[in-house]
Write a structure and sequence with these properties.
disordered C terminus, globular, 2% strand, 283 residues, disordered N terminus, single chain, mainly alpha, two-stranded antiparallel sheet, 62% helix
């Protein structure tokens, strides 16, 4: 009877993952129709869903291998393909080969970043990301496009800058720079009343100029990795920048142990621990 039991998946966390996937697809479609503001906003919306699906899975105890794999595929679309194509349609097309190569560097960086993250589950230090997280890289590229539209900047006139930001974002994803994951922050504990006022102030600042504020925030976050490395290392070596091959893959799956599993949905009672990548992000 058990062997013939019909398999299924948990609905809620996968609906959120699907919503994030749709947002990434929508961003591509909007960029193809020159609606770049909508495309950029859609990528930020995908980041919200990406942050929710794992948390909802943990809260509802609906983690599974299927959810983890589906989430990784969705991240590749929303934070890999979508930002690259949005940037290409916005300001890289007129650069010819240089333009599409810059976009490909970003896509390849996102794919390698996600693959490396998946092989380091339960092994890497949860306090840090190795390399810029894919949602943060996507936010940097999307924020650049959004700022350009808000301030009437023609991307084709600044194609070289668009190529640099896009390409460097891809390279930072596969770098060995450490970025704070903010996973050690306690979100469930009590905080002083002034913290609520600070949060309100942040919302006001973001609402005043959302595109510019978000772009600056994620640009500073992207810069923080290299700055912290150069500040804390006496002599910077190649391993401090890109790491060694054995550090990036070929981990023994038996050692993959995590205190906070984040696989999302399966009818099986045996659940393998997976650590969800966050932005503040992912994927």
């Amino acid at each position: 009877m058990t062997a013939n039991k019909r398999k299924g998946i948990y609905l809620l966390p996968n609906l959120l993952t699907t919503a994030g996937l749709f947002s990434g697809f929508y961003a591509v479609v909007m960029s193809m129709n020159n609606h770049f503001e909508s495309a950029a906003i859609a990528i930020f919306v995908a980041m919200i869903f990406d942050g929710l699906d794992g948390r909802v899975a943990r809260m509802t105890n609906t983690q599974s291998d299927f959810g983890a794999e589906y989430d990784s595929m969705a991240d590749m679309v929303s934070f890999g393909m979508a930002p690259a194509l949005v940037a290409y349609n916005y300001g890289l097309a007129d650069l010819g080969k240089i333009g599409w190569l810059a976009a490909f560097v970003y896509v390849a960086g996102a794919a390698l970043r996600l693959a490396r993250f998946n092989t380091q589950v339960g092994i890497a230090d949860k306090r840090f990301f190795q390399g810029l997280a894919s949602p943060a890289a996507a936010a940097l590229v999307a924020g650049m496009v959004w700022v350009g539209i808000d301030y009437d900047i023609d991307g084709n006139d600044y194609g070289v800058i668009v190529a640099l930001v896009t390409g460097l974002s891809g390279l930072l994803m596969v770098s060995n720079f450490k970025y704070n994951s903010f996973k050690e922050v306690e979100w469930h504990g009590k905080v002083p009343f002034v913290a609520l006022l600070v949060v309100m102030l942040i919302f006001i600042v973001v609402a005043t100029a959302p595109s510019l504020v978000l772009f600056i925030v994620f640009m500073l976050y992207a810069i923080a990795g290299p700055v912290n490395t150069f500040r804390t290392v006496d002599k910077v070596t190649l391993e401090d920048v890109i790491g060694e091959a054995e550090e990036d893959a070929d981990f023994d799956p038996v050692e993959e142990v995590s205190d906070e599993p984040d696989i999302k949905d399966d009818n099986s009672k045996e659940k393998m621990p997976v650590d969800k990548e966050e932005t503040g992000s992912k994927n």
